[in-house]
Structure formats: structure tokens, C-alpha cells
Task: structure prediction
Amino acid sequence: MSWHHGDWLAFAQAAAAVVAIIGAFGVVFFQHNLEVLRAEAKERQESARLIGMAASFVHETLEFLEKMATEKADPLRTETGAHRAAYSMKLHQHMEALNGIPIAGLATSSAAQRLIAARGLLNEAIHKASRDPTAGQANDHFSCIPAYGAPYAPVTRGLRAIAIALDEELKQFADVRYRCFTRRSWEALRRCGRPRGKISPGN
Result:
């Protein structure tokens, strides 16, 4: 069977149509994957921001509790009802800040667990403050002693460990985010470690 000029022309047109269809699918596939990568990059950025906020708030809470415990333990200091009211207000402000971080938005289960643990420790500190031996005294002025600051030591130790862990997790999370989102292909992205399965075509 011999092909005439018209046959070759028809074949070329058919081949061009197939190439055009494949090309169109390729463009759609590329655009879809690009949108997936952009969406995941945005969500990872937001998750990293929340972990950073959690770490920052825990550090601030720790700093305040250490200051409060030191002041309560200072035998040269006299504490008043106004001091105790200020401590209570500040503790509740720190709790409000920690409660304001959405656990569901954190990219790793370990970060969520640490935030919950930090809230629990702060709640323990609030409870200790409400049972503070200097609270409810008939005499508004009360001389501080080391024993008044000692009950907060376990809380500050726990918060310090959580703060360090969140700092390290944020650093590791940022490293993973950089490795993944400097790659061009979706397959390369899939091979990168994800902090949690939440961020997949669609975390």
C-alpha cells in the first residue's frame, strides 16, 4: 500500500491534533500541580507562624513566672494585695494568649501536645497562685520568704522544656519547608518529609 500526498497530509493533521490534546492536558496538569504547591506552601507558612507564636508565648509565660517566683522568694521584699492582683491578672492574660492559638492549625501533633501541656502548666500556676500562702491575709503587706516562690519551680521547669522543644521543632519545620518548596516536581515534594499528614494535596 502506497501513501499519497493527501494521506501524509491527513496523517500529519491527526498527529498534530494528538500532540495538541496531550499538550493541553500537560498544561492543565502543570497548572494544577503548581496550585497545589502554592496552596501547601501557604499552609505550611501559616502552620510555621502558629508554631512560632506558641514558642514565643511560652517563652513570655516562662519569663513572667520566673520573675514572679523570684519576687515571691525575696526575703527583702514585701508583697501587697495589689501585687497579688497584678500577678493574677497577668497569669490570666498569658492563659488567654495560649488559648488563642488554634491547636488544629498546628502542623505537627507534637506541637499541639506541647501547647496543651503548656496550658496545663499555666493553669497549675494559676491554681497555685490562688492558694498562695500570701493571699487572703488580713495584713495587706506580707513579707516574702523563699518558700513562697518554691511551688512554681516545677511549672517553670516544665515550661522551659516545652519552650526549647518548640524552638527546635520550628527550626526543623522551617528546614523541611525549605527543602520541599525549592523542588520543582510533585514527586520530589512527596519524597520530602512532612511534619504531619495534614499537608498533602489538600493539608
